Amino acid sequence: MNKSELVEALSIKKNLTYKKSEQIVNLIFDSMSQALIDKDRIEIRGFGSFMVKDYKAYMGRNPKTGEVIEVKEKMLPFFKVGKELRERVDS
């Protein structure tokens, strides 16, 4: 499912216009993005949690040339699946 399919499903299920559903989905995604930018943890019970992990700088290798390069420190979003979702998918 992609974003437009999610918007369409919401508009059908809750009898909303496509435009209104799109605004709701965008608001949710924007709020979640801002929370991760602020390094907050997002937990949706029964679904999973999102958090930001810090990765330290390290020396890597360019796979094409074999040249040693410095990889700068970075922060990446990480998703951990919840127990209920894991069990539903597994069964």
What does this structure look like?
It is a single chain. The chain has one domain: Irregular (HU Protein, Chain A), CATH 4.10.520. 43% of the residues lie in helices and 30% in strands. It is α+β, with helices and mostly antiparallel strands. The protein contains three helices and five strands; from the N terminus they run ααβββββα.
**How much helix is in the residues?**
40-55%
The order of strands across the largest sheet is 1-2-5
Going by CATH, the architecture would be: Irregular
Strand portion: 25-35%
* Biggest beta-sheet profile: 3 strands, antiparallel
So what's the CATH class?
A: Few Secondary Structures
Number of domains: 1
Give unreliable regions as ranges: none
Radius of gyration: 19 Å
Task: Please outline what is shown here.
The chain is an alpha+beta fold and 91 residues long.
Annotate the secondary structure layout.
Elements: H1 3-13, H2 18-37, E1 42-44, E2 48-55, E3 58-61, E4 68-71, E5 74-81, H3 83-90
Antiparallel strand pairs: 1-2, 2-5, 3-4
Helix pairs in contact: 1-2
Provide the descriptors you would attach to this structure in a database record:
91 residues, alpha+beta, HU Protein, Chain A, three-stranded antiparallel beta sheet, two-stranded antiparallel ribbon, 3 helices
